[in-house]
Design brief:
This protein is of the alpha/beta class and 244 residues long. It has 8 helices and 10 strands. The structure holds 6-phosphogluconic acid.
């Protein structure tokens, strides 16, 4: 697996770097394969980048008609809830660009959690090519929690990651929530995974994630190792260096 760490000066530069990367990868995938299959992340960090993609000049440079968007994880709440990852992406990005509604593939949170996970797994399967048993995303965006979680892959839960999409209870920052999340079985088929990490509060988790000690139960992001793809850590100086 090819791993690279790219350090940006601050969170603004980080957002710009990712937004430009997304646009470039989208163009290339559409040119080469006719479509761009991307997974968006929740959390606050990507919102700046989503807003940049919603504005000129990037908005015009992305071939939105051929972009398909999926969500790496989602809370089991309505799409109109402010905490919904789909809602946040819609407000920051989707409602400002010309992406067809049928290209948006949010988790169907009106279903019961286990049904929603099953339905999402079927959606993913329907985007797999004939020779594949799982979809091969062109780009997966992930975040990093300061407890080391990524998507809704939480510490001490790796025994649960047995299907490409599962239901889990994630307690983060004191708020337990039922979540539907893709697991490494789905993420690791991707061509490229990008982790976006910003702020001094993430420094410890980032150092552990990139460190020598390998333990997916303590550091869930270490389970992200694409079988035939690359991992790019886009981080800002504060996340890499912590408070100086
Ligand atoms: C979510 C996420 C989650 C997130 C991290 C980092 O649904 O909340 O997908 O894994 O990426 O918690 O979140 P921040 O960007 O807000 O720090």
């Amino acid at each position: 697996m090819n791993r690279e760490v790219l350090i940006s000066e601050n969170s603004e530069a980080l957002a710009k770097t990712f937004a430009e990367h997304f646009a470039k990868q989208a163009l290339q995938a559409v040119e080469e394969r006719g479509r761009f299959l991307a997974v968006l992340s929740g959390g606050g960090t990507p919102l700046k980048a989503y807003r940049l993609l919603a504005e000129s000049p990037l908005r015009e440079s992305v071939p939105w008609q051929d972009v398909h968007l999926f969500w790496g994880d989602e809370r089991h709440i309505s799409h109109d809830d402010l905490q919904s990852n789909f809602y946040q992406a819609r407000e920051a990005l989707l409602k400002h660009v010309n992406i067809p509604e049928e290209n948006l593939h949010p988790v169907q949170t009106h279903l019961q959690p286990d049904k929603a996970a099953e339905a999402y797994e079927e959606t993913l399967l329907s985007y797999a090519e004939a020779s594949q048993n799982c979809v091969r995303f062109d780009l997966v965006l992930l975040g990093l929690g300061n407890d080391g979680h990524t998507a809704s892959l939480f510490p001490s839960q790796s025994a649960l990651w047995k299907n490409p999409v599962i239901v889990t209870e994630g307690s983060y920052q004191g708020r337990p929530a039922t979540r539907i999340t893709m697991t490494p079985l789905a993420f690791n088929q991707a061509r490229e995974i990008v982790f976006l990490v910003s702020g001094a509060g993430k420094a410890e988790a980032l150092t552990a994630a990139l460190g020598e000690i390998r333990d997916v139960d303590r550091f869930p992001s270490q389970s992200i190792e694409p079988t035939d793809g690359s991992v790019l850590w886009m981080v800002d100086k504060d996340a890499r260096e912590g408070e100086q």
